[in-house]
Amino acid sequence: MQSSNDLNHRGTSDNRNRIISVEDVFEVLTAPERRAVLYVLCRRQKPMAVEELSEDVASVQIGNARDTPERLITSLRHVHLPKLEQFSLVQYDCDSNSVEINRLPLRLKRYLRFTAEDELGVCSEDATA
Q: Which ranges carry the DUF7344 domain (predicted)?
């Protein structure tokens, strides 16, 4: 898996932002769907189809997010994956309908571990390994 000590540089362009502030971290993590996407993708080492991702996200069932995989596909494609891509946390390819995680900034990874412990009841290392 990718190192948590590096800031994400893969797949970035000049118009994308890296998470550098606590405010950015909270903007990303405020949506339970985005947290679930990050939990799922942190455990993967290769690209994942959006349909498969939506099924895995639906099974995580955190916060008030209780959508079906079919409903999640739309919100993932139009809201959550673009937001995660804006901060260069994922690479989302609409043409191939695939998504994969980029290296996460250490600051985000630290907060994500805390939320995973609270929401999933898993060891913090397991959620973001």
A: 26-100
